[in-house]
Description:
mainly alpha, disordered N terminus, single chain, globular, 0% strand
Amino acid sequence: MKKQTQQTNPREQHEHLERKLKTRHLSMIAIGGTIGTGLFLASGTTIHDAGPGGALAAYLIAGIMVYFLMTSLAEMAAYIPISGSFSTYTSRFVDPALGFAVGWNYWYNNAIILALELSASALIMKYWLPDIPGIVWSATFLVLIFGLNVLSVKGYGESEFWFSIIKVVTILIFIVVGLLMIFGIMSGHTGGFENFTKGEAPFKGGILSIFSVFMVVGFAYQGTEMVGVAAGESENPEKNIPRAIKQIFWRILLFYVLSIFVIGCLISYNDPNLLSSDLENIAVSPFTLVFKHAGLAFAAAAMNAVILTSVLSAGNSSLYVGSRVLWVLAEEGKAPAFLKKVNKGGVPVNALYATTLVGMLCFLTSLFGDGTVYSWLLNAAGLAGYLSWLSISVTHFRFRQAFIAQGKDFNELPYFARWFPLGPILATLLCLVAMLGTNYGAFIGDSIDWYGILVSYIGLPLFLLGYLSYKLVKKSKIVPLNEADFSRE
């Protein structure tokens, strides 16, 4: 691989990240980054709103979309393994202005998610210790997450590996217990597949109900793209990234689709508990209810602990990803230069401090006033994940076109996305459907809900502002295919 940077920058060893993430780290980052409250809690709402069949179809369709997105990302990341890959690939193969907008958009998204998870951790701890102020727990967990990230990338990798192991084991136990109940081997349920056919099931509200929950389901999958961001710190990205991506599809089928199937069989879609499941009421999480029906009395406490693990895992990953994206923006001259500093452990410390500070400030906005500022910030971050996914598909098209235009051999690619161009086209269409359908209810009815539209889609004008600002200041243009940069660090 080229050592071009070492020849031009004598401080290279102090300014670049280190490749310390092993195969097992990447594999767990790929699947563990997606398993969280979107599955443990929001799955109940999706089944209630769309019926068991509608929810199952939504998770399956979204899973296929994510798989195609990840094959596109894997092809680029295995060939050019760079930390913070979204903005870099988009800048190289589409337009630097778009790369600027994608990078800042994704960083902002992760800083807000960090704040969200800090708020969630305080609510979860009330289950055991209701008298201790929530801010104490949020501050404690922020220090813990920061500590795991500041030591070395291996600290993040190891902690995420074990966080993910807990979640994966929980889901496997849940699926086994659920299947035993469905087939009458274990007490607690005797209906078999009855809940899939009674009432309005399997599709409550018809086929359109699938799209009504698609946005929520899509959010549940967000985090799979973290494996691409971690590419720059993988020990052997050409082998490890394809290996991690290849496992994603089957793990999606196992962890998400099979879990929804079990819940849909064991809990009726019109069970009022499904709408009550949230961080303040873990006792009615679909997972908790199934374990309770199986006669496991400690289900609520156990699931509370698992969901706390999920929240800490999400916060841990958000801080890691946010700091890497901010670092690469600084490396490319799209963020202040002081953010390029890397410590002896290979950690971009100033980018880590900045992401932590912004996450903390956003969290504080949820404590003071009426929470309006924080709710707007969350809505602005809501579309950020889909915008990042959309950039992967668009960039992969340009990557392939440039690869051909420059006469390169496909045998050079460590990983080849075989479903091209069908995969990226389908993923792009589904992303657009999900984004535009965020709050389609605001457009129908007697009058258009302009406030609802503004709150739901505030992320789009912010993204366009970043893109147009860079475009006007830097006068950037779409990168010609024969000039696209395929250099590899």
